Amino acid sequence: MACTKETIKSSGLNIWSGEAATGPAPVIDIIAVQGLGSHEFYTWVKKVPSQNADKAKRFRDKAQFWKGKKPQGKDGEDSPTEVMWVRDLLVPMFKDARIATYSYKSDWRDRKVKTSLRQCAEQFLNILSQHRQQADERKRPLVLIGHSLGSIVIQQALVIAVHQPEFTDLRLSIAGVLFLGAPFQGNDAAVFGKWLARLSRLDSTLLENLRNGSPDLYALQEDFCGSYTAWDLVCFYEMSDTNFGGLLRTKVVNPQSASLLGKRKIFLNTDHSGLNKFGGVDDENFALVLPEIQRIFEDGPSIVAERHRAKDTGATSYGNLHWMVPRPVNDLFTGRSELLLRIQKAIHCDQTSSPNKQKRFVITGLGGQGKSEICLRVASQMQADFWGVFWVDVGNASTAENDFIAIAKLLGQSVESLCDAIRVLANTERTWLLILDNADDPNIDYQVYFPSGNRGAVLMTSRIHDCKRYSLDANEALEGLVDKDSKELLLKAADIPKDSWPSYHDQAEKVVSLLGSHTLALIQAGAYIAKGHCQLYEYPNVYERQRKRLLKYRPEQAQSRYHDVYATFEASAEVLERSKSEAAKDALCLLAVLSMLDSAVIPLQIFQSAWNGGRKVLRSNCEETSAIAISRTHALRLPGLLVEESDEWDPFRLTEASSKLISLSLAMRHDINGSVGLSMHPLTHAWAKDRQDLKDQDAAWIVTGCVLALSRSNSTMWQTQERRLLPHLQSYLNIKIGRILLFESKALVIPILLECGWALLDMRQDLMLSHLLEDIFTGLRKNPKELLEELLPLYSLQARSLSNTGEIKMAVALLEQIVEIEGRILAETHPHRLASQHALAIAYEANGQVKEAIALLEQVVEIRGRILVETHPDWLASQHVLASAYKANGQVKEAIVLLEQVVEIEGRILAETHPSRLASQHELAIAYKVNGQVKEAIALLEQVVEIQGRILVETHPNRLASQHTLAYVYEANGQVEEAIALLEQVVEIQGRILVETHPNRLASQHALAIAYEANGQVKEAIVLLEQVVEIKGRILVETHPDRLASQHALAIAYKANGQVKEAIALLEYVMEIKGRILVETHPDRLASQHALASTYETNGQVKEAIVLLEQVVEIKGRILVETHPDRLASQHALAIAYKANGQVKEAIALLEYVMEIKGRILAKTHPSRLASQHALAIAYKANGQVKEAIALLEYVMEIKGRILAKTHPSRLASQHALAIAYEANGQVKEAMALGFRCLD
Questions:
Q1: Beta bridge partners of 1171
Q2: Spatial CA neighbour of 181 closest among 89, 257, 292, 278
Q3: Is the separation of the CB atoms in 924 and 903 below 8 Å?
Q4: Could you tell me if 176 and 232 are in contact, meaning their C-beta atoms sit under 8 angstroms apart?
Q5: Handedness of CA 553, 558, 559, 565 (dihedral sign)
Q6: What digits encode the pLDDT tens for the residues 196-241?
């Protein structure tokens, strides 16, 4: 008799379909299992409006109206219809099915309920079995539907069934399972419920099982997926958040937690509680669930029948007879659950159809990563699925042959040869799994070990990457464990109690990072700690001191095949050493070179660049001007695989050598925008270095240095690959220079170090370069302050380093000495002499000696103009720099003339994409901006950015620099939002490709902060500038110009934020330092005095402001021409201060003087000219000259109205000032009209 709402039981099976006493029996069972704390009936009910509700309501409302009564509210409405979908939808649709729901006590809010997940599952399994005792029931197909915890109950029950023979028939009868919001990985809402339970002193056992990251759930998933990977499982998950009474709103089970790897997942448009409630056949969610039930209903019976037939005949995977596996799974085995599922799915033998090809899966990867352990785990989990599981060690031919012959004998066949033994397995019709372990020799063709035909499954492990060819559609290049699993493995191996793991999280993370998540290394590190040799937190320090000892450490018990980490790698090297081939020798040579660099990706292009550089040196007839320059000796010390007598680069030997390393998993291949790169696992890299004795390491260091130094001939590669090459340069230079100089000549070592130094200079690794130079001088026992002619290139690099670290005066002094010496020993036209003069001029400009810079550059330009054609790059470069100096001196027009000439010449001789042409256009745009030609600047920069966008990757420094400058000009044009968008993009990219201390990255963050401030985002500006100032405070000396510039900018932002006292304190600090290190005429010193005066005025210290500004104006009056923008800006500021101090007449006189000059030199639309006109009008008004003020402001407004957007702050400020002037003049209507326009 069918169950009803009134007769439903709160625990047990409730059958909703009627079973006739006569007639055919059901062909399938469909059972739905409720979730946590659910009601046995209403958990499956959705309330929907009655079909006649609307009609009835209209009739009732009319009747009430006729009777003179108000229509009824909710209390009088028709009750909604209850749709119990299991009863009302499934029963009519599946007439040949027995349909039931299963209920159990799981309400954690009920004090009487105290049960565990296992108890719930065992009860379900037993009750289900009791209802399937008849002959026609025991093997009847069964469809299970679980909601939330009900899904986990189903899982647990099926896992229990695997291990209890009495439930075998039930297990094999599962036609399919539908999981509705199953918390396979737990959920956060359970934590909330657990908190409420504890608050109410209720039992929280079930909630504990469901918490996010529950180890019990994790273990359950491993067991379930290992046993039911071939079963028909479908997962449904929610798309809407559940509202917990306003206390919490979240998805109870997120999509990831509700999914099983490799199984289909479908979302329903509802929250968690709606996943098991459907309102009818037209319910959109039911329309997604129903087809899955129908499919299982139709396909399930044949699948289930085949399973039972296979079990009964013993001809299938459901009973293991032969188990030939060398050892059990290591108790420490951790993680790899997704990979295990993939393997199981790939090699599972489908009993419903004949296979069209042999099932295979290949695992490749570095030694010691756990390939063999994964195979042991798979074999253990799938033991019952295979009639025979056989393990063959193919590490050497004799072992493989013996193992195959042993298999044949186990199967009752006496054979003498390998081929015959393999044929026995190929002809076996039962389901079998063959594991081919340790296929690690690239000189052996392992194809011979695969049985022919379509039968069986083969699982292979190999260090040889190319072995994936044996299973192209099912393979895995094994990498380290994920962080979570790595830490768990380490802590287990260290014998640390599980309940203490959270307190060891950070310590474990450091060790995992140090060891690159290498499985064997983690196990042996744990064993070392467990043995009491050190504590977990001490391991990183011990590793740094005793790396080789730790990685060769061998536990006394449960040793791996190769005993220690280094031995696993050495086994691969021995394969190369046994080979007599040229490729193997080249591979060992390449391995030694890579060991001197970093383990990160290095572009192989560096070797081609080194070859090209070597060719140039060998074919050059010029004698070196210095004894410490790159020479023929360096070219001849390149790796043998590069020394080929050929006119064209041939990558064959390099490709072969790298392929050998990759094939043995000693290196990994990477694609770098179409070219090839190599990387190594950190431990493989450490081993590659440690396997060499000191003599071999020193030789490898020289060879690698020659590669780096000679590759510098390709400046484009070093620029575009800067981020990739930096860690290799850092690793290479991590040596004791003094020791190197003991065994090799200075003529060989110093040129290598100098080329590395020039690379660091280009990369702006200022501190590292400074330390390198210090080490070189110490190694040579030379005083860096006492210049020696024979080491001139070294001192030249030192001078540039000093300039970059803010030691400008020392840089100038050193460059002056270099220029003086070269002036004695080199002709005035010598390229080196001119280059040093060029560098000195740049240092002069940085030191505020702009006039000296100009004088020297004009001399260089004149000489180069005599000896070089007008199109020579060096001549154009010097003109470019001279124009920059003109600009710094306020000679903007001269700068523009010179740059326009350079751009015109480069436009004739260079392609539009040439870097030099684009650089000159970039500089010209900056000059245009300074001259007030903002629109011309924007047009030119947009063109440059567009071209660079086509030809350069988004991370190229030149492209980023032009975007940076374009943003700067956008800001000057009032396009602040565009500036911010562009700078945010630049900062984001630089954040990905540059270290946080890189000058370019810091410069862009600085600029973005300035733009934020201009946009009114002062707080964001302060946060960013404080970050920049903090980083510069760590890496730069207190006198460095960049550090002082950011402190200056931060003070300005503080002032804008109303933190005037903080601004004054910071500016006074900046001024104190600049007062010590800069001459009084230096532009930076004057700029900070100007800013401090402005801040004093804001703080009411007007007199102090005036004193400081008068001093600034006096100095600028002596050193700058009257038309210089900086001189005029300070005079403008002084006038504003005069006005604030009541000295209105002095303010007007000074502003009129400023206006007269700007009127002569600047366009009418120049922002600076308009600003002074605005200020003068304000002063006129303050002096009672209201009509003059109005006339001037109207003129200013007319121009700004033409060139600025309505919302531009400068335009709005002038509108506001004009409205006030109108009001003062009695023009109230005009004032109000203008005021409304300001508001609009």
A1: none
A2: 257
A3: yes
A4: yes
A5: negative
A6: 444 344 455 555 656 666 777 877 887 787 778 778 999 999 998 8
The pTM assigned to this predicted structure is: 0.55
Using DSSP's 3-state secondary structure scheme, residue 317 falls into coil
What are 83's strand-pairing partners? 46
Residue 236 — φ and ψ, nearest 5°?
-115, 140
Answer yes or no: are the C-beta atoms of 96 and 18 closer than 8 Å.
no
Angle at which helices 873-888 and 892-909 cross, to 10°: 160
Element (H, E) at 61: helix 53-66
The backbone torsions φ and ψ at residue 434, rounded to the nearest 5 degrees and listed phi first, read -110, 125
Distance CA 188, CA 192 (A): 7
> Cα(494)–Cα(529) distance, rounded to whole angstroms?
6
* CA dist., res. 608 & res. 724, Å (int): 16
Report how far residue 916's alpha carbon sits from residue 876's, in angstroms, rounded to the nearest whole number. 9
669: which strand partners?
678
Q: What is the DSSP string of 874-906?
A: HHHHHHHHHHHHHHHTT-HHHHHHHHHHHHHHH
**d(C-alpha 836, C-alpha 626), whole Å:** 15
Residue with tokens 């400074």: 770
The secondary structure of residue 1004, as a DSSP letter, is H
Decide: 205 and 281 in contact? Cβ < 8 Å: no
CB neighbours of residue 255 within 10 Å: 13
Residue carrying structure tokens 């001029």: 841
**Token pair belonging to 153:** 């109950």
Task: Kindly tell me if the per-residue pLDDT of 1218 is higher than 90.
Answer: yes
E strand segments, 791-945: none
Q: Are 952 and 918 in contact (CB under 8 A)?
A: no
CB 1214 within 8 A of CB 1200: yes
Q: Tokens for 686? A: 């450490």
| Separation of alpha carbons 1181 and 1189, rounded Å | 6
> Lowest-confidence range among 66-80, 428-442, 474-488, 1034-1048?
66-80
Q: What is the dihedral of CA 895, 898, 900, 903, to 10 degrees?
A: -120
Q: Which of 210, 223, 125 is nearest to 174 (CA)?
A: 125
Q: Specify whether the CB–CB gap between 1131 and 1086 falls below 8 A.
A: no
Residue range 855-913, pLDDT digits in tens = 999 999 999 989 988 888 888 888 988 998 888 887 888 999 999 999 999 888 888 87
CA distance 1215 to 1222: 10
Nearest to 159 by CA among 221, 236, 231: 221
Say if residues 1119 and 1127 touch (Cβ distance below 8 Å).
Answer: no
pLDDT of residue 205: 54
Distance of CA 801 to the CA centre of its chain: 32
Q: Where are the alpha helices (DSSP H) in 518-673?
A: 519-530, 539-551, 565-578, 582-595, 605-618, 632-636, 652-663
Burial class of residue 1208 (count of CB atoms within 10 Å of its CB; 0-12, 13-18, 19+): middle
Which tokens is 1064 given? 């004054």
Residue type, 176: G
Amino acid code (one letter) for 517: S
Please tell me the distance from the alpha carbon of residue 32 to that of residue 85, in angstroms, as a whole number: 11
Instruction: Give the separation between CA 967 and CA 1009, rounded to whole angstroms.
Output: 12
Q: Which pair of structure tokens corresponds to residue 78? A: 């028709």
Rounded CA gap, 228 and 370, in Å?
A: 24
Cβ atoms of 635 and 706 within 8 Å: the answer is yes
DSSP string, 933-997: -HHHHHHHHHHHHHHHHHHS-TT-HHHHHHHHHHHHHHHHTT-HHHHHHHHHHHHHHHHHHS-TT
Burial 694-719 (b: 16+ CB within 10 A, else e): eeebbebbbbbbbbbbbbbbbeebbe
Q: Categorise residue 674: left if φ over 0, alpha if ψ from -120 to 50, beta otherwise.
A: left
Task: Using a pLDDT cut of 90, give the percent of the chain over it.
Answer: 35
